[in-house]
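Lecture 7 notes: from sequence to structure.

We start with a single chain of 314 residues. Read the sequence below before looking at the structure.
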Amino acid sequence: MALYDVPAPAKINLFLHVVGRRADGYHFLQTAFRFVDLNDYLSFIPRDDGRICRAYSTLVDVDPEQDLVVRAARALQQATGTRKGVDISCVKNIPSGAGMGGGSSDAATTLIALNRLWSLGLSRQALMDIALPLGADVPVFVFGQAAFAQGVGEQLQAIALPERDYVIIRPPQFISTAEIFTSKDLTRDEEPITMTFFADWQERFWQAEGNVSLFGKNNLEAVAFGLYPNLLKLKNNLHDSGISARMTGSGSCLFVECRKTENKREATICQNKILQISSKEHHAGSAANSDDSLVKQTWVCSGLQNHPLRYWID
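Now the structure, written as tokens:
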């Protein structure tokens, strides 16, 4: 049996607060993760020789030995002692260096899919334990639900979120997560909140008809904007046009939350407005002999309450 076109969804951080730092340099975070229906797709063909091979990947600039997909498969092999192998193919749609968790999601989908393909029968918690050393964001994709996260991102509580559509805006910049978290300019003392406080805010504001306000802030924005001024310029241009955008994760992607409407109509209107703003800025830049573009790509996505593979784990 082989598994083809298995989805690995992107995530956005609805807010992201840095509330402290451990002695080993890891940061204490509070955030709300939400999956969106922008997916990478992976295929898994079993092997009997125990080898883990990356048969194909559109992520051509990453050495196979450093690919999180390969590392996840080997971590699962090592944890279970299985002698089974696999050929893995990956078609990338989620951009790298964008704060959308593409690599982490691919790793989680690999763990979930191989748990099924190899008939390992591991529990969700067991897979999450294998996931954490691969990266702080990997466990939430195995967790499988929209989540309030604390610690370094591994303490997860399921949260119910209202239906929303999103416009995802991809600038041309690739941002290294390490570059952001090691910056001396990063604020690391945001006041912690409780899950109850977040839930109460959600009840009062998100559930209000037509309200699309976002809770809190993203503490990583200020650092990213200082390093990449065009990101700040993009956010300000959107704000001046009445569009409230927020960076997800360590960037560089921004997102705009919209009411859920038939055929994603409201989000599509917003996307068209963003593209018009980008086009005007590009033409103005061309007139000034500048090749800088503020927007490389946009997507209209739906927010998901559950990971598409949530029920692949017993």
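The radius of gyration is 20 Å. Keep this in mind for problem set 3.
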